[in-house]
Prior knowledge:
Elements: E1 6-8, H1 11-17, E2 23-28, H2 34-44, E3 49-54, H3 74-81, E4 92-94, H4 98-101, H5 121-124, H6 128-143, E5 147-151, H7 155-167, E6 173-177, H8 197-218, H9 223-236, E7 241-247, H10 257-260, E8 266-275, E9 278-287
Parallel strand pairs: 1-4, 2-3, 2-5, 3-4, 5-6
Antiparallel strand pairs: 7-8, 8-9
Amino acid sequence: MTTAPTLARTRAELSVALRPVSRAVVMTMGALHDGHLALVREARGRGEQVVVTIFVNPLQFGPTEDLDRYPRDLAGDLERLTGPGLLGAGDVVFAPEPDEVYPDGDPVVRVSAGAIGEVYEGAIRPGHLDGALTVVLKLMHLTRPDAAMFGRKDVQQLVAVARMVRDLDLGLTVVPVPTVRDADGLALSSRNAYLSADQRETALALSRAVTAGQRAAADGAGPDAVRDATRAVLVAAGIEPDYVALVDPQTFGDIPDDRATQPGAVAVLAVAGRVGDTRLIDNMDVRWA
Length: 289
């Protein structure tokens, strides 16, 4: 008796593999690490059937970004997904090729992230969040989940997906899952594989920076001082930040000073920058006492 999940490479194979039970989905671009597995473990408790999608979505990559060299290892991913608390018999891995997801080529009709897609990641990577939402919506239609897991590391994407689900009445639950970090604090990312040993040491500045901002807020510093404390750590490590954002966790709009001074106020502190040729992101919640 097999204990492995079903591998579906086409829409037809996926349709056959889906069972009439509660379902939780985890959407990935492969090159799986422990952060992805945390999403799968969360999904295991959210549905009788778990579906993991593995698809490197070309709509999310700009013309100068790393689509061609993005790590791909389907055999390794399947091995990592199988085991206690992960996938087993009755679960599904959907790993389609681009022409299966986009049978008519680049889609004419796409989802717009609206104002959320115009700032920070959306401004640095124009069209990125539109492309992400378009494939997420397609995969939601194809997998028909009751719940979908998304990691907090890609926090702007998480906010955009949650808003799309509300605004378009998709009738499912978006479940945020905390960022998984290595023992030294570095947020897990498939792109960490690009880093040399020295670059990885430099990359630790991202987690140190958001931790410094978190402490500054806890000490009562206003938004500008929180951003300054965060930026200073990045610059000292030789990282010129793409942005240091202090935003509303529901809208991704900037937190105004008068709101930040209210006791118990919460914001997301998000940063992005390049280490060598590798662009990395990180974030943490900050709270004012």
